Amino acid sequence: MKIYRNFDQETLDREYRIRDSIPSDQFEAILQRYADESKAARESLACEIDVSYGDSPDEIMDIFPAKGGAPLFVFIHGGYWHVLSHTESSFMAPNMVANGAAVATINYSLAPAVSLDEIVRQCRAALGWLYRNAEKYGADPDRIHIGGNSAGGHLVGMLLAGGWHDRFGVPDDVVKSACALSGLYDLEPVRLSEPNEWMHLDELSAWRNSPIHNLPDRGCPLILSHGGNETGEFKRQTEIYAAAWEARGFECDHIDRDAFNHFDIPFDLNDPHGALARAVLALMD
């Protein structure tokens, strides 16, 4: 029986079981690299660790300061909203800092302990906190740029969404540019597939947390990409969001990174010669 588009349940689950897109040993090695390179960044660069942005103990971030008036790159980690943290997510800081940017890596509570509504709220609260406190860390609140991979790519989309800014005391153009990698922008197939075992989405919560259904009236330059061996559904998610963004007349650059997979593509942000790094830094000027 077809569950979504032309997929039966088994096929739809396989499309969204992105963990199976690479061998287990390669997956474990990439996770270890996240941790090792992020630890090295914290040890080699000036960094304020576990800075609180809210009341929950999970509402913390690491901040790599810069000199006054610098752009601020805010990174949101992936992990299908239920694993990983900011601690493994600062591996791009050396390249960004070397090019004059401040960096903040956001932590958020994980599902199923909290809902996706709460995860989105926390990320918006973090951005509001950074807007109000950027100058303390040598960053310009009017030069905030965001990025994220996988679930973090989805959360980038929800920070780009319209209608939430007044609640958090930020202008509707608080984000000056964004980079979303291998993100999920329509959550209806997620609701109908295996990840909903921990996400507990219903039809309404999937709709209100889908970036493609919450596009802003005022957009910013957007970089989108995905790995070459990702499933058809993950690739389609990027394609439909790019089309929707451009249909609004907003700038979108879809950068080919087929040599990467779903999990290692964010390392391109720390490569001085990486296409993603160069594109992000160009938008941050």
Class from helix and strand fractions: alpha/beta
Number of helices, where a helix is a run of at least 4 consecutive DSSP H or I residues: 10
The CATH topology is what? Rossmann fold
Largest sheet, strands/sense/barrel? 8 strands, mixed
What percentage of residues falls in helices of 4 or more residues? 25-40%
- Numbering strands along the chain, what is their spatial order in the largest sheet? 3-4-6-5-7-8-9-10
Backbone shape: globular
Under CATH at level 1, the class stands as Alpha Beta
Please identify which CATH superfamily we are dealing with.
Alpha/Beta hydrolase fold, catalytic domain
- Alpha-carbon distance between the two ends: 51 Å
What is the alpha-carbon Rg in Å? 17 Å
The CATH level-2 architecture is identified as 3-Layer(aba) Sandwich
**How many extended strands?**
10
Could you give a quick summary of the protein structure above?
36% of the residues lie in helices and 18% in strands. It is α/β, with parallel strands linked by helices. The radius of gyration is 17 Å and the shape is globular.
Descriptive overview:
The chain has one domain: 3-Layer(aba) Sandwich (Rossmann fold). The chain has 10 helices and 10 strands. The strands form 2 sheets. The chain has an 8-stranded mixed sheet with strand order 3-4-6-5-7-8-9-10, sandwiched between helices. It has a two-stranded antiparallel ribbon with strand order 1-2. The mean pLDDT is 98.
